[in-house]
Specification:
The complex is a heterodimer of chains A (about 300) and B (about 800). With about 300 residues, chain A is mostly beta strands. Chain A contains four helices and 22 strands. Chain B has about 800 residues and is mainly beta. In chain B, the strands form ten sheets. Chain B has a 22-stranded antiparallel β-barrel. In chain B, strands 9-16-17-12-13 form a five-stranded mixed β-sheet. In chain B, strands 4-1-8-6 form a four-stranded mixed β-sheet, with no helix packed on it. The chains are: A mainly beta (about 300), B mainly beta (about 800). Chains A and B meet through helix 1, strand 1, strand 2, strand 3 and strand 4 of A and helix 4, strand 21, strand 22, strand 25 and strand 26 of B. Strand 4 of chain A pairs antiparallel with strand 42 of chain B.
């Protein structure tokens, strides 16, 4: 939201208010932080760290001496092994549609637990395009349960060096090839009924899909629930907003379509819309979602389907 | 409620007044009015000289008393007026008596119930506050804008919200638990300028009666307080007017007779000029290629016409119109020398306002039976529109690319009729009974958005997140109360209020018992105990704690039951000729309170507001002390409240109790006025509160994406620093040929104590810091001229 929209209100505060840094005694018990997204395609990697008081340095305190045990359903599988920087690794890859639990303890910190069920993979039926910026992705949703999806596009584009721009002709003299997330938008009245991502207010009010217009231009993704397409075969209309990207055998366009756990979806929502309305920031609290009992972070899962377009 | 019990109770309510109405003595009845303006004086005291009989006028200045005596005197007194005595033998028993009192401006002012301590008084200043409009002039307030609600904040049991605002929290209740009545009509949003002003223009008001407990049965619909505000009727003797110019607003009042002694009017309005300043700032900050305007203003208008049809009947028509608007328009084009470039147009508009109307008919059916029939209309609405259109410029031709627009609105309409009767049954019983019906139309929130898609098509949708369906509800009530003088020492007010709220096919039937017992040890010392059971059918769903217009008024529904409170209070009053001391204790429990659920924030699947709220309970308790000096050059009061207010919601704060948003442990207010002479008087206010509870970040960690994430404390678990503030003002008065001129100079927050309005969290050199925004020292002035 453009801050100018609330200028009249801001003016009142500017005229009337002063600011002062305050020092409150906010010390509280540190907690174990667990971050991990399980996927059937890879070994389990869990990052274990410790929260800090807000007056401390922002550096993460990695915990390398934690006991990290993994259970499948209620059966103990193994203790994960520390590979440094607070990261712990399994010796196995998890299975789709299985439930995994984690117990973590470290020193005097309160032990934490969490669990996640890895979702089934989404079936991408087809991907078609009308031009290099507009694509149709057809998927079949499993109607027997609530599903949540995360879509990313990876491709190669030309990044111009703006310092070399000619202000008269708008031409650049220097550029580089970059392989990264492409900025996308969705023009779909079912997934995001009221908006295509251009107004955060509309998305907040639609509550139908999360479209991340992140602070970096090339970092977009779309997360949505199957609420309006449950059990159907549905064709999603996608637009690529990144200019001057390539599609060819050498530079394929990757469609990363993940079925994600509900916890992951809630987490994405909470980090995307921490403080949408300026007025609501006054005295309001928007904490990031966590599913770690007695701790913080996210222990969730995803199942990834990948398809490509090469321009043929 | 027991269904078999309900009809019996209704019969009891209906027959009650007639059981006591037929043992009548001789009756003295009439009005108490201002001698110069003809204004009816509510809550004036009328005492028979033998001291055994006393009463007060009702909201419309009417009284009635029964007596066997033919001799003696009737003494009539009223706040700020010279008491007068009338001999009974001179009074005609057969006709209506009008007691005319003279304003006491030239003498020492008596600003509350001003009877001498040794005289009998019918009112105990426990559980309620009667504000005199004359008090407001003497109290320093932010930006010099006198305000009824801000003055109430200085009384024990009443506390304010954000610094500088007029929001009100009574005995641990929430902001929506106050029933604000303007001439009998509910006012839903009492805020102008996001709470800096209240909608009640003191120049148009006659009396304010604020109750925080021991609610008589005639009042209902809110859990925590009733603030019954009466507008002036207008001078029926001669034309009068006031003009006032302040820092932020100017106002005028004009009143006078349309036909002397028969018909009068009053009209009072005000408008801010903040928009002139913001327009100027906007223009100064304009970039090249930018056209930018923004601003904020509000206006309101109070009007009333009063017509005396005959001695027995009066007609009153009153209206209030208020409107706030914040706006912004911006057009920006950035084109190069070849006329190529880009631009955008942006529009923002947020407006809200109340409209209330009441048509009231007073009729004296019998000398001891007074009837008041009122039709009411109340409307509150806010709406918000914004749009953004991006443009491109090619060879000086502007093309619209993409854009979006968004509108939302929410509101409530009430239309109703009510009949209230005052039956002065005999010397011991003063009975009030009545009934009412209100049709509520709630518009929870309608959001509409449109955008230009990538095919250049405009798509418009209506969102149903908060329910685009209007909700209609019918509220009816029936009440009966009796002011019973049991003997010289014991008096009681007891009553029942039966109400029904019909919504979405569900009918809520409720019975509110009310009871208070007063024990007059002597004319100086008295005690009171009270119990009130209250229902509330309308809720304010707020996602902020600052009383924003975007908060939604929502009804009880088939899934959201009415809120309920039970309040017990006990207190005592001791008064001398100059001083008055009160001490009160209370306990209040509340059920079916609503709050946004924590889960609603994450769960994108919710379609309807009912899915996003949690239903919980609350309780509050505390003691209130007050010492007040009413006469002399020095007047004022000191009020202290020690209180606790907690909430419990199953799915908030892990089901653990947490402090209410405005839970203040200690609340101390000292108000002093000093009248140096007829031309100069001073006012000073010092306020001290315990720090408010807040939910603040206490820990942090790094997320999956490498971002810093805050972990928050338990709900409202952190206390902000204590709040304190000193305000001063001085009034310079001068009598001129055509009236009185008043210059008011004042300073808000004299020693520049920075009390937090809100807290911002930010990162500074890898450390997290908390920054508070606060109102600094603010001098102000205003000029008022009151025409004779």
């Amino acid at each position: 939201m453009n801050i100018k929209a609330y200028l009249p209100i801001l003016v009142i505060f500017i005229i009337c208010s002063c600011t002062k840094d305050i020092d409150l005694d906010l010390s509280d018990g540190n907690v174990i932080v667990v971050n991990s997204i399980l996927s059937p395609d890879s070994l389990i990697h869990v990052q274990i760290s410790q929260s800090q008081n807000i007056s401390d340095s922002s550096e993460t305190i990695a915990l390398n001496d934690a006991d990290v045990s993994i259970y499948k359903d209620t059966t103990f599988i193994e203790n994960l092994v520390s590979i440094g920087n607070g990261i712990y690794e399994s010796s196995f890859t998890p299975n789709a549609e299985a439930t995994y639990s984690i117990n973590v303890s470290s020193g005097s910190l309160t032990p934490v637990t969490s669990s996640t069920t890895i979702p089934a993979k989404i079936k991408i039926d087809s991907i078609t395009w009308t031009n290099s910026y507009n694509y149709s992705i057809t998927i079949t949703d499993d109607g027997s349960e609530d599903n949540y999806y995360l879509l990313k596009l990876l491709g190669t584009y030309i990044e111009y060096d703006y310092s070399t721009r000619n202000e008269e002709t708008y031409e650049f003299t220097d550029s580089t090839m970059v392989f990264t997330n492409l900025s996308l938008s969705i023009d779909d009245e079912v997934i995001c009924p009221s908006d295509n991502g251009s107004s955060t207010e509309q998305i907040i009010n639609s509550m139908e899909g999360i479209f991340n217009t992140s602070t970096t231009y090339h970092g977009d993704w779309l997360a949505f629930s199957d609420k309006n397409i449950a059990g159907t075969t549905y064709t999603l209309q996608i637009n690529i907003n990144t200019g001057d990207f390539f599609i060819s055998e050498e530079y394929p366009l990757y469609f990363i379509f993940e079925t994600i756990n509900k916890d992951y979806y809630y987490y994405l929502y909470s980090i995307t819309y921490p403080n949408e309305y300026l007025l609501d920031q006054i005295n309001s609290v928007n904490s990031v979602y966590t599913n770690i009992e007695n701790g913080a972070g996210l222990f969730s899962s995803a199942n990834i389907s990948i398809d490509t377009i090469t321009g043929d | 409620m027991n269904r078999q019990l309900t009809p019996l109770l209704l019969c009891a309510i209906t027959l009650w007044p007639f059981q006591t109405a037929f043992s009548q003595d001789n009756t003295i009845n009439g009005y108490v009015v201002d001698e110069k303006s003809g204004e009816y004086l509510p809550y004036a005291t009328v005492v028979l000289s033998d001291g055994n009989l006393c009463t007060t006028t009702n909201n419309y200045g009417y009284f009635s008393m029964s007596t066997n005596s033919d001799n003696g005197t009737v003494k009539v007194s009223y706040v700020g007026y010279q008491p007068k005595e009338f001999y009974l033998s001179q009074l005609s028993r057969d006709s209506l008596i009008t007691f005319k009192l003279t304003s006491n401006n030239e003498l020492e002012e008596v600003i509350v119930q001003g009877d001498k301590a040794d005289e009998k008084t019918p009112h105990l200043a426990i559980n309620s506050v009667n504000l005199s409009m004359k008090e407001l002039d003497k109290i320093p307030v932010i930006l010099g804008e006198q305000d009824v609600l801000k003055t109430l904040q200085l009384m024990p049991g009443f506390t304010g919200g954000l610094d500088g605002t007029s929001s009100l929290y009574v005995r641990g209740g929430d902001a929506d638990q106050n029933h604000l009545l303007l001439d009998g009509v509910t006012v839903y949003n009492a805020n102008h300028l996001f709470g800096i002003f209240s909608v009640f223009n003191p120049d148009a008001l006659k009396s304010v009666n604020a109750m925080k407990g021991a609610f008589p049965a005639r009042y209902g619909g809110r859990l925590s307080s009733v603030i019954d505000i009466q507008m002036k009727e207008g001078n029926n003797q001669k034309y009068k007017g006031d003009i006032s110019v302040g820092l932020l607003s100017s106002k005028f009042t004009l009143e006078g007779p349309i036909k002397k002694d028969k018909t009068s009017f009053i009209i009072s309005g005000r408008r801010t000029y903040l928009d002139f300043f913001t327009r100027l700032i906007s223009e100064l900050e304009e970039l090249e290629g930018e056209e930018f305007t923004s601003g904020y203003y509000f206006y309101d208008l109070n009007a009333k016409v009063n017509h005396k049809i005959n001695d027995k009947s009066h007609l009153f028509l009153s209206a209030y119109l208020g409107y706030d608007k914040a706006f912004l328009n911006c057009d920006y084009i950035d084109a190069n020398a070849n006329y190529n470039g880009y631009g955008f147009s942006q529009y923002f508009n947020l407006n809200w306002g109340n409209r209330t109307f009441s048509l009231r008919y007073n009729y004296i059916l019998k000398p001891n039976l007074f009837a008041n029939i009122t039709t009411i209309y109340s409307h509150y609405q806010y709406s918000h529109q914004s749009s953004y259109i991006s443009k491109s410029v090619y060879q000086n031709e502007i093309t619209t690319n993409t854009g979006n627009s968004y509108t939302s609105s929410s509101g409530i309409n009430d239309l109703g009729v009510k009949a209230d009767f005052d039956l002065y049954a005999n010397q011991d019983h003063a009975i009030k009974f009545g009934a009412g019906y209100i049709n509520h139309k709630h518009i929870p929130e309608i959001c509409s958005s449109s955008y230009m898609n990538f095919r250049g098509e405009t798509v418009t949708t209506t969102d149903t997140t908060f329910g685009s369906q209007n909700i209609y509800a019918n509220e009816t009530y029936l009440y009966m109360e009796d002011d019973w003088s049991i003997n010289d020492h014991f008096k009681t007010n007891f009553g029942l209020r039966f109400s029904s709220f019909s919504v979405q096919g569900k009918n809520y039937l409720n019975l509110d018992p009310r009871f208070s017992l007063k024990y007059l040890v002597s004319n100086r010392l008295s005690f009171e105990a009270a119990y009130s059971h209250m229902y509330q059918y309308t809720h304010l769903l707020s996602n902020s704690s600052s009383g924003l217009p975007t908060d939604l008024w929502l009804p009880s529904t088939k899934n959201i039951p009415p809120s309920i409170s039970n309040q017990f209070s006990i207190g005592g009053l001791y008064k001398t000729n100059a001083f008055e001391f009160t001490a009160e204790a209370y306990y209040k429990s509340m059920q079916n309170l609503i709050e946004y659920s924590d889960q609603s924030y994450y769960n994108a699947d919710y379609d309807y507001w009912e899915d996003e709220v949690e239903i919980g309970t609350g309780n509050s308790y505390g003691i209130e002390l007050m010492a007040r000096k009413n006469i002399g050059a020095f007047t004022g009061w000191a009020g202290y409240t020690l209180s606790w207010s907690n909430r419990i919601f199953e799915n908030i704060n892990d089901g653990n109790p947490f402090p209410a948003t405005y839970d203040r442990r200690h609340d101390l207010s000292i108000v002093l006025n000093y009248k140096l002479n007829e031309r100069i008087d001073f006012g000073a206010t010092w306020v001290y509160n315990s720090g408010l509870p807040k939910t603040l970040p206490v820990q942090k960690y790094t997320s999956l994406d490498g971002n810093t994430i805050y972990l928050y404390s338990d709900r409202n678990a952190v206390r902000l620093p204590d709040y304190h503030r000193l305000d001063l003002c001085v009034n310079f008065r001068k009598q001129k040929k055509r009236g009185e001129r008043i210059w008011t100079l004042g300073i808000y927050n004299v020693y520049n104590q920075l009390n937090p309005i809100f807290i911002e969290t930010s990162e500074d050199n890898a450390r997290t810091k908390l920054t508070e925004y606060a109102l600094p020292i603010m001098p102000y002035f205003s000029y008022t001229f009151r025409f004779k």
